[in-house]
């Protein structure tokens, strides 16, 4: 089974594949939404929703910090954290 854990990890293409480094990885197209006939039909909506959500979030809080103790779901298909302790500070 293909997994999104495999996407965008080619070290020849992505300078920092294991990091959230938008500037370092900006020159390579992201393949998390698939490619060609397998491209996600909801990609445009997901990007629009994320842009609106991040704009609203960053206008209200300072840079969040992730604490220790993250627990991840098993790597089967689309997954993510089961527990992710994050601390937010309200923007002044």
The SSE string, one letter per element, is HEEEE
- Low-pLDDT runs of 5+ residues are none
Strands ordered across the widest β-sheet: 1-4
Large-scale geometry = globular
Oligomer: single chain
Q: How large a portion of the residues is in β-strands, by DSSP E?
A: 5-15%
User: Strand pairing plus helix content: what structural class?
Assistant: alpha+beta
Mean pLDDT: 81
Largest sheet: 2 strands, antiparallel
Radius of gyration: 16 Å
- Report the span from N to C terminus: 47 Å
Tally of extended strands?
4
Query: Percent range for helical residues?
Result: 10-25%
Number of helices: 1
Task: Describe the protein in words.
- By secondary structure, the chain is of the alpha+beta class.
- Helices cover 20% and strands 10% of the residues.
- It contains one helix and four strands; from the N terminus they run H-E-E-E-E.
- The chain has one helix spanning 43-60; strands at 65-66, 71-72, 81-83, 86-87.
- The strands form two sheets. It has a two-stranded antiparallel sheet with strand order 1-4. It has a two-stranded antiparallel sheet with strand order 2-3.
- Strand 2 (71-72) and strand 3 form a beta hairpin.
- It is globular, with a radius of gyration of 16 Å.
- The model has no long low-confidence stretch (mean pLDDT 81).
């Amino acid at each position: 089974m293909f997994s999104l854990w495999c996407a965008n990890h080619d070290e020849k293409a992505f300078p920092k594949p294991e990091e959230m480094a938008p500037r370092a990885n900006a020159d390579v197209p992201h393949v998390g939404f698939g490619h060609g006939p397998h491209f996600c039909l909801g990609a445009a909506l997901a990007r629009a929703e994320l842009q609106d959500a991040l704009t609203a979030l960053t206008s209200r809080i300072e840079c969040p910090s992730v604490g220790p103790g993250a627990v991840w779901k098993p790597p089967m298909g689309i997954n993510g954290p089961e527990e992710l302790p994050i601390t937010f500070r309200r923007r002044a």
